Amino acid sequence: MAAGAAPGSGAAPLAPVALLGRCPRCGSGPLFSGVLAVREACPACGLDLRAHDSGDGPAMAGIFIVGALAVIAALVVDVRYEPPLWAHALLWPALVLPVSLLVMRLAKALLVALQYRHRLRGTAG
Ligand SMILES: [Zn+2]
């Protein structure tokens, strides 16, 4: 059994699948067809990915993780450097938007991989 693989599941190792956005079964095919859109099927192994719906989980990860870090960082920057308000208005959206997309992509790949490992199916579709 490969390290990190669920017993008897035939699942690819979790960390590379989540970090690289790969198919949860073969670990080589791309999971996403866009920034956050999951493919209908894996082009490498043919796994049907339509039933694996992560729902609002990735958005919640983005809100709680990135939102909390952004508020803390904004407070620290404001207290330490006292920038004008327009600097905050330019800086934080430019940092928060790409980091949120990255966190949501990682969370979506992780949730789809966990659903596959535990044979869970989403409710959509
Ligand atoms: Zn695959």
Main structural class: mainly alpha
Number of strands: 0
The share of residues in helices is: 40-55%
Model regions low in confidence, pLDDT < 50 over at least 5 residues: 1-8
Bound molecules: zinc ion
Radius of gyration using CA atoms only: 18 Å
Beta content comes to: under 5%
Count of discrete domains: 1
- Terminal CA distance reads 33 Å
H/E element order: HHH
Q: Can you count the helices?
A: 3
Shape: elongated
pLDDT average, as an integer?
Answer: 87
How many strands, which pairing sense, and closed or not: the largest β-sheet? Answer: none
Structure commentary:
- The N terminus is likely disordered.
- The two termini are 33 Å apart.
- The chain is mostly helical.
- The protein has one domain.
- α1 packs across α3.
- It contains 3 helices and no strands.
